[in-house]
Design a protein that fits this description.
alpha/beta, 9-stranded mixed β-sheet, globular, Spore Coat Polysaccharide Biosynthesis Protein SpsA, Chain A, 9 strands
């Protein structure tokens, strides 16, 4: 009798873990066609989500609302729309959305990226097989055509490598992570730290004992137009970056050498001409081979 109850409990736990929420936020400057493609890529997953939490970060354009309405009419039981009156930024938007997620496993998705069909299935398999709290993977970067990949952002696979890598660079691709809701809430969710909200979250989770894993597979096609390289340049970005690096040092997540190497290196890159900064990212910080492995 005890064995039967234990077996039933294990099966029930497995069923809970196999269900997952998708969490996405969108704001007025997003392009409707990008949002449509992004949502469609989730709906085409081989392992379907149990719910799709979409946060409208402030008022949207009529075109964006039309895209959302089409999907909510077609899938009324899947979508839950969270509407914020004013644009409050990605940290607040995702925290509000996370409150509405009913499942322990949450798949993050950006409103302009495209998930590969098996993305969530592969991540769920890792959660079933390993004791982990964050599962990411490789991001294949493109500029306009998702079929024309220009580079890959490949990250360390295992926990010790992730911890070492995180001292100087972001250890997960935010737009394709799946995480345990409880592990995120345990450190207070997302905090406002402009440009570094996700990196900050990973650091706090890792310091709190969370375990990570990065699949050696492409999980998402990530849009990286010229706006990305523009945002990562200039004095304002440098000031915020130095504050973030000092914060990591102050929390003893990094040492002073890490602080110096990162601040000096990133400052030089920030003040490069935009074309040179773009070239540096592609040649030095990415894998440009056709095979990311």
């Amino acid at each position: 009798m005890i064995f039967i109850l234990l077996e039933a409990g294990i099966k029930e736990r497995k069923n809970i873990l196999e269900k997952y929420s998708v969490l996405m936020s969108v704001y007025a400057k997003e392009k409707p066609e990008y949002l449509k493609d992004s949502i469609q890529s989730i709906l085409q997953q081989t392992e379907q989500p149990s719910e799709f939490i979409l946060v409208k970060d402030g008022l949207l354009t009529a075109e964006l609302d039309q895209v959302i309405n089409i999907f909510t009419i077609q899938y009324p039981s899947l979508f839950l729309i969270v509407s914020l009156e004013k644009n409050q930024g990605i940290a607040t938007a995702l925290n509000e959305g996370l409150k509405q997620c009913h499942y322990e496993l949450v798949a993050r998705m950006d409103s302009d990226d495209i998930a590969v069909p098996d993305r969530c299935k592969w991540q769920l398999e890792i959660f079933s097989a390993q004791d982990v709290d964050i599962v990411g993977g490789i991001a294949a970067e493109f500029e306009s055509n998702p079929k024309q990949i220009i580079s890959y952002r490949k990250l360390p696979e295992k926990q010790e490598e992730i911890l070492s890598f995180a001292r100087r660079r972001n250890p997960f691709n935010h737009s394709c992570v799946m995480f345990r809701k409880s592990a995120v809430l345990a450190v207070g969710g997302y905090h406002f730290f402009r440009f570094f909200e996700d990196y900050d979250l990973w650091v706090r989770m890792l310091r709190n004992g969370a375990k990570g894993y990065n699949l050696p597979k492409v999980l998402v096609h990530m849009r990286v137009g010229n706006g990305l390289y523009h945002r990562r340049g200039g004095l304002q970005y440098v000031i915020i970056m130095v504050k973030f690096r000092w914060y990591l040092f102050h929390k003893r997540f990094t040492n002073f050498l890490d602080f110096l190497v990162c601040t000096l290196g990133q400052t030089c890159v920030c003040f490069m001409p935009e074309w040179a900064r773009k070239l540096f990212y592609k040649k030095m910080l990415r894998n440009s081979n056709s095979d990311p492995l």
